[in-house]
Amino acid sequence: MTDARATPSVLGARLEPLAWLLLAALLAQGVALALGSVSIAPDELFQVLTGGGEALHRTLVLELRLPRSLAAFGTGALLALAGALMQVLLRNPLADPYVLGLSGGASVAALAAMLAGLGTALVGGAAFAGALASTLMVFGLAHGTGSWTPTRMLLTGVVMASGWGAVITFLLAVSPVERLPGMLYWLMGDLAYAGSPWPVLAVAAVALAAMVPLGRTLNVLARGGLQAAALGVAVRPLEWTLYLLASLITAVAVTTAGSVGFVGLMVPHMLRLRLGNDQRLILPASLLAGGTLLTLADTLARTLIAPQQLPVGVITALLGVPTFLYLLHRSR
């Protein structure tokens, strides 16, 4: 039997969608840099990117818009990649970090840090710790004293997400009025204070490089734990690795942009409907498409009612809720 990896036509079929997605990502970055309360023409944008242009345009593009658009791309890439990994792990198209309660745990810890008056760096660290704590709680409760199943994990995550939502409501109710706007914007997802984009981009690149070599193994795991074990896959260590990695990159994304929902749900599933279920293609495609989606969503959030800005989580929720309902209807 011919190895598909050695067939040029198969390799080309995998690379073509990635090339189109890469082009879409570059175009999304161009749109993000050009649009805003002050629009910049394409020729002026080119001059700025090549070292020329007006001083005002250089400040807008290089100091404000470019870091934010790259942070949006990195955050969306991480969320989509985490969603793709969780959907393989749980073999369920409704799995994503938002639904499983990881974002909720991060939000509770971050809001508690804000309520305590801690600085931005400590708020990010608290969000990171909250996401990891929620990971351990969901995984531990789902395992319990009985057998671990994807359905049990998904139901445990949904219940944990509801519980975190109640804690978030309590924290908002007891918070001082002057701190509520910042807490609400963080809770809805906001890239205005994302900071340097390089850490989130570096984590996305490292996570993708770690997962793509496991693509064939993930394809086997997606068919079921028993079949994977029969074919020699170490199922339990692989499942722990996937869940911890997905939780880690979710924590980094939440630390960067706050709680942004539905990206990890929409992107991987829609790509599977279009490209199939080969994880060697889905994982890099999810990274590119997730980054592109959140870049465009953030551009829309800061231009829709400019000079005022909307939280990017509002835009992704408006897209994600109908998608979630459609997937529920489709799974009947």
TrEMBL record:
Transmembrane segments: 70-90, 97-116, 122-142, 154-175, 195-213, 244-268, 309-328
One GO term (biological process): siderophore-iron import into cell
GO MF annotations in UniProt: transmembrane transporter activity
Membrane topology, as annotated: Multi-pass membrane protein
InterPro entries: ABC_BtuC-like (IPR037294), ABC_transptr_permease_BtuC (IPR000522)
Coiled coil: none
This protein's record includes keyword Transmembrane: yes
GO CC terms, sorted: plasma membrane
Family: Belongs to the binding-protein-dependent transport system permease family. FecCD subfamily.
Name of the protein in its database record: Iron complex transport system permease protein
Source organism of this protein record: Halomonas saccharevitans
